[in-house]
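Dear colleague,

Thank you for sharing your sequence with our group. We've completed the structure prediction you requested, and as agreed, I am returning the results in plain text so they can be pasted directly into your records. Please verify that the sequence below matches your submission; if there's any discrepancy, let me know and we will rerun it promptly.
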Amino acid sequence: MRIILVLGFLFKVIFVFLPAMTVQDTYRHKGLRSRLVQNLKQKGITDKAALNAIGKVPRHLFIESGFVNFAYQDKAFPIGAGQTISQPYTVAFQSQLLELKPGEKVLEIGTGSGYQAAVLIEMGADLYTIERQSELYKKTTRLLKSMGYNAGFFLGDGYKGLPAFAPFDKVLITAGAPFIPKDLLLQIKPGGWLIIPLGEKEQVMTKIVRISDDEFEQTEYGKCAFVPMLEGIVK
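Please find the predicted structure tokens below.
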């Protein structure tokens, strides 16, 4: 009886923890990613590095279990803590606007699910990423590290950025900001730029290039919709 009970307990332990220990990326998933990449090309994404990265990153591992069968549809899904994983087109479009060169130092504001971070790392970014939600930060950092994605992971207020690690070649904000955070502008190298969904209820995708120490140039790329960028840290 003891042996049966012990074996039953071990079976439950293995059953519960096996999915967390096993990264499953099947030929079916790879085929769905390939189809997604073709879809993004048809929608106007031309950046080869961004497309290649999206073709490599297993998005289904960043999705909540209830939506995992829809992971390679071009849709956003909730990930908890009032946050979402952006639709692949949005990830590709923001990544394309960065015009990344391998080795460039990038600050991402809003780690979220970690999917955008993984795409940027695949594109060759030297990535620093901030998340304000403590539980999401812990979960995402654990996931990305387990997948071999190395970056500077920080729990912090995105509005303040990371002045101790500045300047950055590029800064990417993955939430809707009601205004342009001045602290972030000052953390961009001259010649570098910030990509930001700018606005409150409705945002406009905006690129802000730092021309010199005190001169900036702004370009708009159309309407978009993001969860709001909030201040402070949630522990």
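Summary note from our side: The chain has one domain: 25-224.

Kind regards,
the structure core
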